[in-house]
Amino acid sequence: MDFVSIRIITADVARLVDFYERATGVRAAWSTEDFAELSTPRATLAIAGTRTVPLFAPGSARPAANHSVIIEFIVDDVDRVHRNLTDLVTEFVQEPTTMPWGNRSLLLRDPDGHLVNFFTPVTPAAQAKFGR
Predict the structure, then answer these.
(1) What is the largest CA-CA distance in the chain?
(2) Strands 44-49, 5-10: parallel, antiparallel or unpaired by DSSP?
(3) Side-chain half-sphere of 34: how many Cα atoms within 13 Å?
(4) Burial of 43 (0-12, 13-18, 19+ CB in 10 A)
């Protein structure tokens, strides 16, 4: 088995794709106006519109309803990411902070309210874990 992606359901695909393209620097590949993917070497973030939900099971997913999942991106310099996002992000949950497990972490909410963590491994153990 291999972990492939996380999919976010949203009422505004273009807005959310624009946010993640600007936040990550990764260009989205659009399949339809209701579905786009931002792929990195490790995983893919899929963004789909509400019109895709009935294709799986009507009512099974609701946009902007997540309060239990954190989407995470490893970056070279979390402080630089923070500076670059100050005009784009309306809610920083936590400014860059070095966590006890060795990652310097920035926690924010995307336009739909999902928690997003950008982090940089800063201790030798954390750097070794992520091959940095």
Answers:
(1) 47
(2) parallel
(3) 8
(4) middle
Tokens read off for 107: 């926690």
Percent of the chain past pLDDT 70, that is, above it, reads: 100
Domain annotation for the chain: domains and CATH numbers: 1-57 (3.10.180.10), 67-132 (3.10.180.10)
Pair of tokens at residue 45: 């973030």
Two structure tokens written together for 81: 């990411």
Predicted TM-score (pTM) of the model is 0.91
Per-residue pLDDT tens over the stretch 69-107: 999 999 999 999 999 999 999 999 999 999 999 999 999
- Locus of tokens 């099974």: 60
> Would you state the structure tokens that stand for residue 93, as one six-digit string?
């949950």
With contact defined as beta carbons under 8 Å apart, do 68 and 28 qualify? Answer: no
